[in-house]
Amino acid sequence: MMFELNTQRSLWDHALVTLAEKDCEPEPDLAAFLRQGPAKIGGHGLDIGCGLGRHTLATLRMGYEMTAVDFSEVAVQRTRELVQSKGFNADVRCASMHNLPFNDGQFDFAFSWCVLNHGTRKIFEQAISEAIRVLCSGGVIFGFVMSQHDSRFGSGRRVGEDCFAFTEGPESGICHYFPSERNLVNLLERFSVIERLKEVFFDGSENAFYHPEMSRSCHFEFIARKH
Ligand SMILES: C[S@@+](CC[C@H](N)C(=O)[O-])C[C@H]1O[C@@H](n2cnc3c(N)ncnc32)[C@H](O)[C@@H]1O
User: Fold this and answer.
1) Could you tell me the fold of the domain covering 5-20+44-226?
2) CA 7 and chain centroid, separation
3) Which pLDDT tens digit goes with each residue over 183-225?
4) Distance from the CA of 191 to the center of ligand 1, in angstroms?
5) Nearest alpha-carbon partner for 128 in 139, 112, 146
């Protein structure tokens, strides 16, 4: 199986329509990162792979300016509607994370929940490098990406090195790259100082993307500060 961005985009359009009514609460660990103040209130944040917009909205509610990107038109539309329905404004754009339409150093902070690993190793590396490129010097990024300790590592159809397309559940057909810790650390350390890196076992039962296999899901959570 080949990795094709357009096919992946269509699969996400479909998954997001199916799941659109669920799960508007922010993830607790990401909410905690935001509460700690990644930038001065009024600072500019970027949500990479905003999905239905729950984290963009939560960040706006805390008083930050927000830009959000997703490569799915469904996601972009839903996020715009959610933000506007709650009386906020955000710049929500359709773009792929591996080629962000922003200037270097434009954002004070960025975050990405369960997105950066959706692709091949090459897309993952480009997405991390892009996320850090658009941060100002000293800006922070919070990321949540899959780990090779996840029970789904190695299952489904192999698409490339450490990359598999699931064959069941709501993310069937969608590619997942599972970085090793060494790969992730090497990549982040090229551009930033790692302030937190931990593996978390995720009880996804309340999550919109829940599938029984997720009961043994494992992710890396990281915070890194740009040099
Ligand atoms: C599991 S959902 C997470 C959504 C959101 N971050 C959240 O936590 O609610 C993954 C999202 O990543 C988006 N995505 C996948 N690959 C992408 C890419 N190459 N560029 C931008 N967004 C992408 C999908 O469209 C989807 O909205």
Assistant:
1) Rossmann fold (3.40.50)
2) 19
3) 999 999 999 999 999 999 866 555 555 555 555 789 999 999 9
4) 23
5) 112
3-state secondary structure 125-185: HHHHHHHHHCEEEEEEEEEEEECCCCCCCCCCEEEECCEEECCCCCCCCCEEECCCHHHHH
CA distance 159 to 100: 24
The finding on whether 209 has its CB within 6 A of some atom of ligand 1 is yes
Structure tokens at 25: 């609460």
Task: Give the residue extent of every domain in the chain.
Answer: 5-20+44-226
Tokens 């100002």 -> residue: 136
Instruction: State pLDDT tens for residues 79-133.
Output: 999 999 999 999 999 999 999 999 999 999 999 999 999 999 999 999 999 999 9
Reported as a single tens digit per residue, the pLDDT across 120-133 is 999 999 999 999 99
Residue of the CA atom closest to atom 14 of ligand 1: 49
Task: Please report the atom of ligand 1 found closest to the CA of residue 16.
Answer: 27
Which tokens belong to 170?
């709501």
